[in-house]
Amino acid sequence: MKDNMLIVHGGAPTAVMNASLYGAIRAASASGAVGRIYGAQGGTRGVLEGNYIDLSVLPEETLEALPTTPASFIGTSRFPVETGDYDRIVDRLVEDGIRYLLITGGNGSMDTCGKIARAVTRRAPGRGIKVAGIPKTIDNDLAGTDHAPGFGSAARYLAASVAELSQDIASLPIHVCVIESMGRNAGWLTASAALAKPSAWKDEVQGSKAAPGAATGADAVQDDRLGPHLIYVPEIAFDEEKFLDEAKTLYDRLGGVVVVVSEGLRGKDGKPIVPLIFQTGRSVYYGDVSAHLCGLIIRRLGIKARSEKPGVLGRCSIAHQSPVDREEAITAGREAAAAALSGKTGVMVGFRRLSSKPYACETFLVPVEEVMLHERTLPIEYLNAERNGIKESYLDWCGPLLGGVLPVFAWRPGARCGGEKS
Question: What CATH code is carried by the domain that includes residue 42?
Fold first, then answer.
């Protein structure tokens, strides 16, 4: 009798979580070594309850739709796994004939992955159960890998949305707009908004008649007018007075200002600049940072301001799904299944950057012990000297993950904005 495989999703879903599921199912099916392929309904709670979906019998059309289906097909959760649960999970795996366990998720899920692997060694050392992790996070804060599936699509959504909004603000330059990005402690995603600037793609679109090219002359005016003008990440203590000065200076010159901020901004005291709405364990719901900052601008500067908070839309958008992200997610699922089937355990699939121009990456296996709850924040060297913008080195790193250039919009060469400050 062939052994079974169980796939578990943990934490917040992404636009490519199901692509990883697809890759794992395809690899397991093709191996000929797996009996049934199950998906735990609703994350680790589904494992404890033995609540599974039989993925082995999915219709072909359903299976092929997975890579472009948002969120989690099998369901995910933030179920808090207690100390005693790990042995219970192992007992359940033994009872259900599960030999291969794949866990897709971020920091918390990889912690669970490692602890289950330890419990297998302690509880069922002779059963041959193999545990492997599939990386997933829009925050890109997983240790041991250059980047994680889910990030590229969320970054493309944010950059594309900021690019479109910047056109709107430049067309009617009468206010400051503050956009709030997800990212509790790591600014990788917030920083990706810098790719909304036309100049960020000058190398990729060079030679195109519609391309902005290098930011010189009229192109420099375009790049100056279009946001984001200010970007603030959680790695740097947020100074409200400095922010107001910078916003006012830009408003006086341009009329319309686009600001992108992380939901996890903290002041010099290390506390969130807006009180938390809710927190349980690692799950945190932040207050409305963008609305708070707009309130400051209105009250303190007397300038019209509005806030935008894409929130969950930014992690589930298939319209902005990155093809590179999708293919790498499929690869991650496939490689995790292959690792478990070959006898590897206690590992996570990682991505190693070989080149950014042209983009090339390879997968490798990371000991999950090196990943468990090790948060990887945005390096300070990616920030400009004023700590309110992003350097080109970050754009070179992040750009390929978006899976292609953003749309190039028309611009009025040499035009003077209607609300331009004199």
Answer: 3.40.50.450
Taking the chain, what is the end-to-end CA distance rounded to the nearest angstrom? 80
Name 345's Cβ contacts closer than 8 Å, sequence gap at least 6.
117, 120, 129, 130, 131, 132
Determine the 3-state secondary structure of 306 from DSSP.
Answer: strand
Count how many domains the chain has.
2
Residue 362 has φ and ψ, to the nearest 5°, of -135, 155
Strands (E), 41-81: 52-54
Residues 205, 176 contacting (CB under 8 angstroms): no
DSSP conformation class of 400: G
Examine residue 86 and state whether it is found in any structural domain, yes or no.
Answer: yes
Give the structural domain span for 63.
3-148+319-370
pLDDT digits (tens, 9 = 90+) for 352-402: 999 999 999 999 999 999 999 899 999 999 999 999 999 999 999 999 999
Structure token digits, residue 334: 């496939």
| Whether residue 390 sits in one domain with residue 241 | yes
Contact (CB, 8 A) for 288 and 263: no
pLDDT value of position 7: 98
**Whether 323 and 228 share a structural domain:** no
Contacts of 224 (CB under 8 A, 6+ apart): 254
Q: Is the per-residue pLDDT at 278 higher than 80?
A: no
